[in-house]
Amino acid sequence: MAKEVTNRAENYSQWYNDLVVKADLAEQSAVRGCMVIKPYGYAIWEKMQSVLDAKFKKSGVQNAYFPLFIPKSFFSREAEHVAGFAKECAVVTHHRLMNDPNGKGVVVDPEAKLEEELIVRPTSETIIWSTYKNWITSWRDLPILCNQWCNVVRWEMRTRLFLRTAEFLWQEGHTAHATSEEASAKAYEMVQVYADFARNTMALPVVVGHKSPNERFAGALDTLTIEAMMQDGKALQAGTSHFLGQNFAKSFDVQYTNKEGKQEYVWATSWGVSTRLMGALIMAHGDDNGLVLPPALAPIQVVMVPIFKTAEEHEAILDKMYEIKKELEAAGHSVKVDDRDTLRPGFKFAEWELKGVPVRVAIGPRDLANGTVELARRDTLTKQSASVEGLADTIDALLQDIQQNIYAKAMSFRDANVRKCDSWEEFKTEITKGGFLLCHWDGTAETEQKIKDETKATIRCIPVDSYVCEEEGVDIYSGKPSKQRVIFAISY
RNA sequence: CGAGAAGUAGCGCAGUUGGUAGCGCACUACGUUCGGGACGUAGGGGUCGCGUGUUCGAGUCACGUCUUCUCGACCA
C-alpha cells in the first residue's frame, strides 16, 4: 500500500482534508468533536442499519427505543459501570433559559435548576435495566431481546472524526435471560453476527476474541470483540458483545420466578456497533484516489458516464444508459446516470472514484456504434470493454468479484502484518512497525499494564477463530508460563 | 488538562526590515473544448480569529484572549 495512504490513515485529518470525507461525507460541526453526516455518508450508514437489522431479526431481536436522559441516580447503581463512564458524561442541570437581565442574549435561568441532574446517555444499560425490572416477573417473560438505534454522547477529552466523536450513532442490543449459559451463548451469537457483517458486507476481515479483563466493558464479566486492522497496521475495535452476568440485574433488582417457584436474578448481555464502522470502512479500503466501497454497502453501485461531443450524441447515449439502468435496477442494483452536461468525463471519473463507486460504465459514440461499454472497477482501477448484450449479468458478476476482491485484499494485508514475537527486545521494536503481534501472555493485568505503559500496545483480544495458538510458552514480558498467544497491537 | 503548531476569500496557502490585500483551486459570464480532473478572456468575492497596546501608519511588533490541529492522559 502506498505510503501516502498509510500516512493518511495515521493522520486522520489528512483523510479528512484530502478525500471525500471532508468534501462530501462529513464536515465538522461547530460543536466540539461532533460530526455532520452528509447524505452520501448517511446512505452508507442506512445500508449498514438495514443489513444488521435483518440479521438481528433472525436472532429474534426486536427494535425498541429508550430515553436519551438518564437520572443520575440510575446511573450510579452499578459501581464498575459508573467508574467506567463517570469521567465522560454530559450532564443536564437546568431546563430553561431566560433573557439576560443585564443585557444581550440569553442565560440559564437559575430558578430552573433540576432537582436531580440528568445524564445524556453514554450507553443505555442503566435506563434499560430499570425498565426491564417492570417487564420481568416470571421465567415465561424471558428472554427479552431488544435493540435500539440511537445516538449516545461521550465527552471524550480527545476526539477523532468517525472513530471517536463526542456524539455518535449506534445500535445497542440488551438482552435478559434465565440462565448464565443462555446469556453467554447470546453474547457469542451476537459477536458472530458482527463478524459475519464485517466480513461479508463490509469486506473487512476481523478477528473474533475475548477482551482481557483490563479492556473489558465497565460492568461486564466477559467482552467479546471483533478486531480489524487498518492500513497503517493499527488495530480498530469494530464491535463488542458483552456478557454482563447478573451485575445489572442485581443493581436494578431484576428477578424472576423460575419453574421451581424460586426467585432468581436474570442474566444479561449487551452489544453494539457504531458509526465508527464507517471510519473502519474508509481506513481499511481507501486508497490515494479516495474511498473504496464494497458493493454491498455502496449507495451507488454503478455510475454511468456518457462521453460525447454534441448534444445529439449526448441524447442518444443517455437514452441507451437509461435503458441499461432499468435493466440493472431490475437486477437489484443501484445505478446513477451522470447526465450533467457541464462537466467533462475525466472530471466525473475522478469524482466518482473519490466517492468509492464500485463500478463505472462509460459509453461514447464508438461504444454506441459497436454495442459495447467500457467497464471500470474501483478496487483495481482497471478497465475493460464489455458487450451491452448481457450487461446486467456481467455487472452482477463484477460486483460480486469486487466485493470478494476487496475482502481478499484486506485479508492478505492483514495476514502479511500478523507475526509471532517471542522476545521482549524484539517486541519493543516490532510493535512500532504496526500490525498484530502474537505473543505469550501470563494472564495478569499487571503485565498487560506494564506492556501498555512501556509500548502503548494493548491486548486487542484473545482470539477464538483466527490466529488461535494454544501452546505452552512463557510471557514475553514477565517470563511466567503461558498457555496461549494473544494479539498485541497499537490501537485507535 | 500538559507539550508543540496554526488561525489571511468557500478550500489550500504566500505575504520580506511595519507602508494601497495577494496566489492556486473553486465560483459567475461568454467562447473554444469533451474517450482520465480542459483552455482563453472578462468578472465577483476580505473587519487578515477577537481584544488592547506601541506607531504618523499593524496581516506583520507586544500583551491578553478564543478556536482548531498534532502528541500525551481518557476511550467505541
Could you give the topology of this structure?
Layout: H1 3-10, H2 12-18, H3 20-25, E1 26-28, E2 35-37, H4 39-58, E3 62-63, E4 69-71, H5 72-75, H6 79-85, E5 91-94, E6 97-99, E7 106-108, E8 113-120, H7 125-135, E9 144-153, E10 167-177, H8 180-200, E11 206-210, E12 222-229, E13 235-245, H9 247-251, E14 255-257, E15 263-265, E16 267-274, H10 276-285, E17 302-306, H11 311-330, E18 335-337, H12 345-354, E19 359-363, H13 365-370, E20 372-377, E21 383-387, H14 391-416, E22 418-420, H15 424-430, E23 436-440, H16 445-455, E24 458-463, E25 470-474, E26 481-489
Parallel strand pairs: 3-9, 17-18, 17-19, 22-23
Antiparallel strand pairs: 1-2, 4-8, 5-8, 6-7, 9-10, 10-16, 11-12, 11-24, 12-13, 13-16, 14-15, 19-20, 20-21, 23-26, 24-26, 25-26
Helix pairs in contact: 1-2, 4-8
The protein binds one RNA strand of 76 nucleotides through residues 11, 13, 17, 22-23, 28, 32, 84, 87-88, 123, 152, 154, 156-158, 163-164, 168, 170, 217, 236-240, 272-274, 276, 307-309, 343-351, 362, 364-367, 374, 492.
